[in-house]
Amino acid sequence: MNITAEQEKNLIIEILTKLEVPEENAIIVADVTVNADLKGFSSHGIGRFPQYITGLKIGTIQPRAEVTVEKESPATALLNGNHGFGHVVTYRGMEMAMKKARETGIGLVGINNSNHFGIAGYYSDMALRQDLVGIVIANTEPAVAPIGGKEPILGTNPLAIGIPSNGHYVSVDMATSASARGKLMEAKRRGEEIPENVALDEQGTPTIDPCAALKGSILPFGAHKGYALAFMIEIMAGPLVGAAYGKAVSGTANPEVNCTKGDLLAVIDPSKFVDPDHFKEEVDDFIAEVKSSPKIFIPGDMEVRNIKRFKKDGIPLDETLKYQLKDICQEYGVDWDDIVGS
Ligand SMILES: NC(=O)c1ccc[n+]([C@@H]2O[C@H](COP(=O)([O-])OP(=O)(O)OC[C@H]3O[C@@H](n4cnc5c(N)ncnc54)[C@H](O)[C@@H]3O)[C@@H](O)[C@H]2O)c1
Prior knowledge:
single chain; alpha+beta; Hypothetical Oxidoreductase Yiak, Chain: A, domain 1; Ribosomal Protein S8, Chain: A, domain 1; 2 domains; 7-stranded mixed β-sheet; 3-stranded antiparallel β-sheet; globular; binds nicotinamide-adenine-dinucleotide
């Protein structure tokens, strides 16, 4: 079945508020999740919602946690998420980074003790909508083996960069692994195979079986370069922000243990370097130069296409996910039929 963005949003808000998540925070979680599904990142959309419900039940996600500032300077801050919802903690962190960027030219905010935040690109979008450049990196529990090894040590360590422009949505939002782990989890749920050249089983042999891949490791994207980039992110979103690194990172895919990952958010105000209108014109000029044929896309084009498509057709829910969500509704007294229809 397909549901509308509005139905998905209402469903998430209704369930989360039953679980003592303040409405203001539930709205943020719902907005990030719906945005992921609309952009086509279903691996980080409502498919991950049951994981958050487990986290709330077990207590690894604290519904009413407030972010605290551990250290601050005019351009930087280190935030403790106190195990709140990753979406809410990162949203607050980005608000702070944008404020600092407007004041000083750059805002750099590190975060620890947070939780899985969904798609990295939601937060870099917050900056680009205000004519700022936004950069988001995070580490995750291990999934990727270093080149030459077979034991997962690095995370899928996402990277998102959003750049303001007059006429285009300019955003790269990606895992540094050949596939996001969520895509493997999604294939497992749907009983599908995964593409070739994405993952290895526990013995280090290439596999298209998502269950074997989830027990084994995911390859880095772009061979040694993806590994090298994930390695650097592991440190900048780990030890640099007082968060865990390598095998000590937990809780981004398994909600039953405390989440120890970290995030680093950077915002740059172009007006502190150049005329901001001229900057956006040059971004558009560059895009025109790049897009010399309709076969050429820029980072962000896929998301724009997907948003149009899923707004028109609705967001697909596979049968397993539909029943998982219905079970959650039943458990917390939320009327599925009233929100989504039968
Ligand atoms: N929360 C976490 O811990 C975590 C971890 C890993 C990934 N993620 C999220 O998973 C999502 C999916 O990541 P992924 O690596 O599977 O994404 P992906 O492989 O689908 O790559 C997406 C990016 O590539 C760009 N792109 C695609 N085709 C293009 C083309 N032909 N030309 C130019 N650009 C093109 C897209 O616009 C997009 O920015 C992301 O939203 C990411 O933030 C989250």
